[in-house]
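During the second year of the project, the team shifted from modelling isolated chains to modelling whole assemblies. The rationale, set out in the original proposal, was that interfaces cannot be judged from single-chain predictions alone. As a representative example for this report, we include one of the complexes processed in the last quarter. Its constituent sequences, exactly as entered into the pipeline, are reproduced here:
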Amino acid sequence: MKARVHVMLKNGVLDPQGEAVRHALGAMGFDKVEGVRQGKVIDLDLAAGATEADVTEMCEKLLANTVIESYSIEIQ
Amino acid sequence: MKAAVVVFPGSNCDRDLAVAFERAGFDVSMVWHKDSVLPEGIDIVGVPGGFSYGDYLRCGAIAAQSPICQAVVEHAKRGGYAMGVCNGFQILTETGVLPGALLRKAGLKYICRTVDLEVATADSVFTQGYAKGDVIGIPIAHHDGNYFADAETIAALKDQDRFAFTYRQNPNGSVDDIAGILSENRRVLGMMPHPERAADEGHGGTDGTAVFRALAGIVAAA
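Output from the structure prediction step:
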């Protein structure tokens, strides 16, 4: 089983890296970009028997810092 | 008086922190990240600055899951003293010993220079060597030091007088200019600036020594 975890800063938490990317895009002439948020994608190769609940636990304990980040899980 | 300083792969302020404790009169033992117990009878644990585990995933995230950090958390839960500087502060927030998190600084640039800090409370073993409102020069050297917590947490920190130090000129976007905070029982300090780098004439300033001296005095009296 494979799982893909998306980790993003929560809405309302400043994302300086996303802002820098937005500025750069604007400077390059892409003038229709109104906002950029940058996150992480983590792909997990899981042994048989692993469940989505296991992945949720991994997110809560390590993969995301839920003080500042939200996550979503895609089971593939 | 005994102090332990934790060493992770990628720590680079561990020796400086150990020397600052030694000069204040502590016997210091270095503790490796794979150890699962702290030395017997220690009075304080120092979690040093650096780039533990290469800052992979998030600064401090992987260190927070190391065996020694479980022991540090237990020590703090029992009411033991601990201080985390820079990456050590990031690690202590990742373990949940201290609230909030440290984000990438608002201006993105890594900054390494001495800044003016205001002592926000003298009511802790770490800050009692200063008077509230004192301004001290302490170096910062970080990329992810922008302190963030939700409004409720910030209000609680403020109500409980748990801001330890604030920046005079906010270098990183921290909420309410926060440079360092205390745990609820006031026995755990986390701060981004490096008091151990302002602890010798050769450093160009000694404003940080009062942290270690005060700590030594209190621990000895206890």
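The mean pLDDT of chain B is 94. The first strand of chain B starts at residue 2 and ends at 7.
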